[in-house]
Hints:
This protein is α/β, with parallel strands linked by helices and 359 residues long.
Amino acid sequence: MVPTVPTTYWHxxxxxxxxxxxxxxxxxxxxxxxxxxxxxxxxxxEIVLTTYGRSSGFCVDPVEKKPLNHFLPGSxxxxxxxxxxxxxxxxxxxxxxxxxxxMDTLADQAAPExxxxxxxxxxxRSVAFTYNDPTIFLEYAIDVADACHELGLAAVAVTxxxxxxxPRADFYAHLDAAxxxxxxxxxxxxxxxxxxxxxxxxxxxxxxxxxxxxxxELTTLLIPGLNDSDRExxxxxxxxxxxxxxxxxxxxxxxxxxxxxxxxxxxxPETLSRxxxxxxxxxxxxxxxxxxxDTGGQSTFCHGCGARVVxxxxxxxxxxxxxxxxxxxxxxxxxxxxxDGGPGGWGPQRRPVVLRGHS
Length: 359
């Protein structure tokens, strides 16, 4: 029997169905039906979460893998997710988890306090909700975040930002940082390739920037011929600079054929460099490349004097020229982000974790 917990964001409809109000999909369910995300379901006259306390596995990663380049650089982060997703991206690179409709995918069971204790025992500075979107396991993620804060750990969401206003305010009130996938910059791409709407994601980004204190960065997976044109990149990066400010880091990462999009070629490295150049030309101070070996495109340079302040080689940090508060040692310019002491030394390690023994 799969355990369930009641949820808050739903309302009854006149025709007897119950509508889920967590994300803009607004799934309208009869008794026994599940939403598109698969994990939120109707039981009786309410919507319940069927995956509370159940995970697809835990792993300690470098925080740069989320990717977050301006949040506790070099530190380790305990990552986990659940089954299901509320988007339908044809190119999903975690499809074996996010598209799963098998509860056997949920290999580990863990209460929020167990996760926080495990992260602390592993020497992590934070915990990430990732692999699939935490929007769909909102209640579990909030409780984990609160448990982390009790132990002095940060809570991080890796998300598509596809969430309704009321649960959005609730969710992000418990978070310290997020990486939001800005998957493209046309409604057509979102509708036909992701099964979502761009407008709702842009609302989340403006909310994060103007109504929260959470640190956030953006990631765009560039797919040849679909979302990588000069025009789209120009419009996207101009919008970011105007609406979110020039200090929000943007990550342009390389696509590789996967899931239901195996007919497209991998992204050429020069496409990522072109995107980075367009972003910087439009005022974005911190633009990065990802999923390719590009030390220059992955390192951080001071926007004040141009000095390299964080050298990165994949997930390894080399020369580090920031003081404990994130000031450039060459000119004193404050680098935007969350810096606390020197860099961590986790490097490129990826270590699976079994939570038994951390209770």
